[in-house]
Amino acid sequence: MVGTVYIPNPSVMTLDLGNVTMNLSVDGKSIGTSLLPNLVLRPGNNTVPMQARVDQLTVIGLIQSKYKNAILPLDITGNSSVKDGKSLSYYAEAIKSNTVKLDLNVGPALSAVGINVTNIVPT
Fold this sequence. Notes:
Layout: E1 2-9, E2 15-26, E3 29-41, E4 44-54, H1 56-65, E5 71-83, E6 86-87, H2 89-96, E7 99-105, H3 107-112
Antiparallel strand pairs: 1-4, 2-3, 2-5, 3-4, 5-6, 5-7
């Protein structure tokens, strides 16, 4: 997946976090990871690019079993912050301490690859 994310920075500081990776999960089950490449947060509102790798079979299994409306309660938790090959542990610990929760509608993404969620039959 490729998209953009909105990250507010209410401070007056500019923060260069490098490549930030995040863990993606639903109900405590990992579904993939996301990357915010070369993340620099400037004071105010930031809209930045995001890339994610998601296990499509796991997502389809969740839709078949529990989330038949294709809306997944996604938990996003920090994993790492790396700049020029070096871990930025101060930033990594900060992003690990915060979990972002959101409802993600995966129906359009699955539809784009030819999977119509209304036709998924539980096995």
